[in-house]
Fold this sequence. Notes:
The complex is a heterodimer of chains A (255) and B (150). Chain A has helices at 3-19, 24-37, 77-88, 90-93, 97-108, 115-132, 137-159, 164-184, 191-199, 205-217, 220-252, and strands at residues 42-48, 51-57, 63-69. By secondary structure, chain A is mainly alpha-helical.
Amino acid sequence: xxxxxxxxxxxxxxxxxxxxxxxxxxxxxxxxxxxxxxxxxxxxxxxxxxxxxxxxxxxxxxxxxxxxxxxxxxxxxxxxxxxxxxxxxxxxxxxxxxxxxxxxxxxxxxxxxxxxxxxxxxxxxxxxxxxxxxxxxxxxxxxxxxxxxxxxxxxxxxxxxxxxxxxxxxxxxxxxxxxxxxxxxxxxxxxxxxxxxxxxxxxxxxxxxxxxxxxxxxxxxxxxxxxxxxxxxxxxxxxxxxxxxxxxxxxxxxx
Amino acid sequence: xxxxxxxxxxxxxxxxxxxxxxxxxxxxxxxxxxxxxxxxxxxxxxxxxxxxxxxxxxxxxxxxxxxxxxxxxxxxxxxxxxxxxxxxxxxxxxxxxxxxxxxxxxxxxxxxxxxxxxxxxxxxxxxxxxxxxxxxxxxxxxxxxxxxxx
Lengths: 255, 150
């Protein structure tokens, strides 16, 4: 039994889960399940949102441990779902180590949706939410425009692997700026509805969810880390749009 | 009005699940989850006029839907929870807090800020209760199966 290879595979699976927005306890569970399904009993893992540590020992008192550092995270829940299915079915389907390696590589290379599609989705989402919050059709069009443009800008910013908080400050700034300009040109009427609709795209839903689920599972460190992340993202969005308001007030005096 | 908002929320949730890179049939069920949460939220806010209570009821509904769907469709619960809580996330309250802070109304901004945090905390507690009870049920189930029948 090649414990080196098994531990590498397990750590890799944990890394993919963390990099794509999975919860910490899910990463630990997957690692342990992978090790157990190859009868590697003495395996332990410790995972936080930024690091994966796996250690295992064989029957011949041979010990190996691996640390994988997670440097950036994005959201691709499809990868999480696929790895989850994979790790649950190893025993039933009798995967060999090679098969699992190729399968993990395939899952890791699953592409996100096309950029055009993402931009379209974010503008529709922003427009719909503006309508729900009580805007009229003009507000919806402006908000859809702001949401789509914001997504496009943030996509290019995040392709430089820029800091998460910086990206969110920029997003809040940009959405508010477009909304203020359009309302002052009389293209839309309800400023607040337009801004809320497009800012909903930046709201930290994933961080809130993961904070809750990690805390329940007993991973208190990860729970606190995700809660702080959610809080800071919300603050960053508010700061970004607050800057625009402050500048607007001091130049044009009021709304 | 109610039906219009329901359809809009479901379309918005559908688009959000594209932004989260969810694929296949799961997308339709996440959109349905957003709709169900919205139905519970808007009905209960009409009945009791207290938004934190309404958010709690809707979060419980979202939690039950997500946990059930995750077991039926064999997908991670996160996929459904994230999209189901989208209609509840306090974007509007956050905006009002920011606006009051910028305008220098300290007392207004503090009370709105606490309200925003309370809504976020309520969503968390609602999901927390449901996930914990589902986990407890699973554990009890396991134990019953393990003990040999007399």
